[in-house]
Amino acid sequence: MKILNLYAGIGGNRKLWGDEHEITAVEFEPYVAAAYAALYPQDTIIVADAHQYLLEHYKEYDLIWSSPPCPSHSRMRNSLVKSKPVYPDMKLYEEIIFLKHFFKGIWVVENVIPYYTPLISPVAVIDRHFVWSNKPISESKFSRGYAGRITDQSKEALAAEYGIELPDGTKNQRKLLRNAVHPDFGAYILKEVTNP
């Protein structure tokens, strides 16, 4: 399959997908894209705006995975007293609507459970994620609890939990690991949406 991995980060969701697919990852931050490229040298990595790339290239892929940035939606941000209120980034919903109406392949949009009632109901709620897709996803088959296992939020503990060793010199390693989708979750969702 030709897979488009949008807002790829360091590729936590992609880690357990194997190498039999042709994967294109789009990441905006060059240093994050460099870390992804070091971890998955066989993938095509594009440093660009994922939202715009989707609009221009969606017809080229069989499966699209999108994980738009979650900070403006997260319950954590909303609960922080010192945090300045911001508008939720509506690219999340723009992409769900766009994919639903224009993309003929398989699509998945993943994000955190937000502080508000979602504007579009997800097809699954798994652990700390909402998942929107054009394929059914069983919530009950996923072995839950990985988020609860990660009590130590140090860079070393997160790297061990995710099985991801970032290249030496990568800045913000702890943040990159904290923002990564857990590999088990990524593998589970890919299996769910591609199995007949």
Structural overview:
With 196 residues, this protein is α/β, with parallel strands linked by helices. It has a single domain (2-145, 182-194), classed as Rossmann fold (3-Layer(aba) Sandwich), CATH 3.40.50. 34% of the residues lie in helices and 17% in strands. It has helices at 30-39, 50-57, 75-79, 91-102, 146-149, 155-162, 173-179, 183-194; strands spanning 2-6, 22-27, 44-47, 63-66, 106-112, 124-126, 129-133. Strands 3-2-1-4-5-7-6 form a seven-stranded mixed beta sheet, with helices on both faces. Helix 1 (30-39) links the parallel strand 2 (22-27) and strand 3 (44-47). The radius of gyration is 16 Å and the shape is globular. The two termini are 15 Å apart.
What number of domains? 1
- How many alpha or pi helices? 8
Look at the structure and name the CATH superfamily.
Vaccinia Virus protein VP39
Coarse morphology: globular
Topology as a string of helices (H) and strands (E): EEHEHEHHEEEHHHH
Indicate the low-confidence ranges by residue numbers.
Answer: none
The CATH class turns out to be Alpha Beta
Distance between the termini: 15 Å
**What is the average per-residue confidence, as pLDDT, rounded to a whole number?**
90
The assigned structural class equals: alpha/beta
Indicate the percent of residues in helices.
25-40%
State the strand order across the main sheet: 3-2-1-4-5-7-6
> Beta-sheet strand percentage?
15-25%
* Annotated CATH topology: Rossmann fold
Largest sheet: 7 strands, mixed
Compute the CA-based radius of gyration.
16 Å
Counting DSSP E segments of at least 2 residues, the number of strands comes to 7
CATH architecture: 3-Layer(aba) Sandwich
